[in-house]
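In the current project phase, work has continued on tokenised descriptions of protein folds. One protein thus recorded appears below exactly as we store it.

——
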Amino acid sequence: MMKQPHNTSHQKRYGQYFSGSKVADLLSALLPPSRLYSSAIDPMVGVGDLLLQAIQKTLPNSNIVGVEIDAPVAEQCAHRMSSTKIINGDSFSSKQIIVPDGWDLVITNPPYVRYQLQKDEHSVMPSSAKIRDNLCKRISAMQHLSASDKAFFLKLAQNYSGLSDMAVPSWLLCASLLCDNGVLAIVVPEAWLNREYAAPIRYLLLKCFDNIVVARDIGACWFENALVRTCLVVAERSKTVFFDEGLKKNIYQIDLGA
């Protein structure tokens, strides 16, 4: 298990709560059994805890990529995963995350940071406006999305609340990267279950995903020094449901204590 940065200020600026082996093992265990992936990406890879687990479920010669905005952490991840392509950059502005057919597995633990509160001109994280603009550009450039799906994702990206934490645009980016029948595996604050600003995410899951598994950390014991409880969510990309079609979704919730 990789430790948190010792510099608390640095950790908060980057929203760094690295997954660790416990969360990585749990999230990996929730992935669809007996499935192997031809491509996998972690757009906010950190030190690589989740991606290391994901690699064990990929086919030989799979395309595996991690993206990390914090240069020293990206270097640490690259050293730890020497055979994997690790990109030092902002996933919202990186053109390298876009592949013609989409990704088979997108797995990540987005930074927990209220980016809209970072108003200092020297802030290391991009502003909320910059994130939204770059998110829309990335979605617009995705060739694997149908015209209707691209329009749907763009509408969500253009209209999610400015009160959102970074998990909301991160979730939209990750979901849009998936190929048909791809799998999304993500660590997010529990607030997405009931906060109004996360309504677009709940709507997205119902419209575009099936076999949705939600594991809640009811004991708040997965992350040291974190002030919020978290969830693990795994869902399979399915055909987008339109208004004239019935919602038939399999949704499972697991509450995990200490």
Remarks:
- Residues 1-6, 9-16 have pLDDT under 50 and may be disordered.
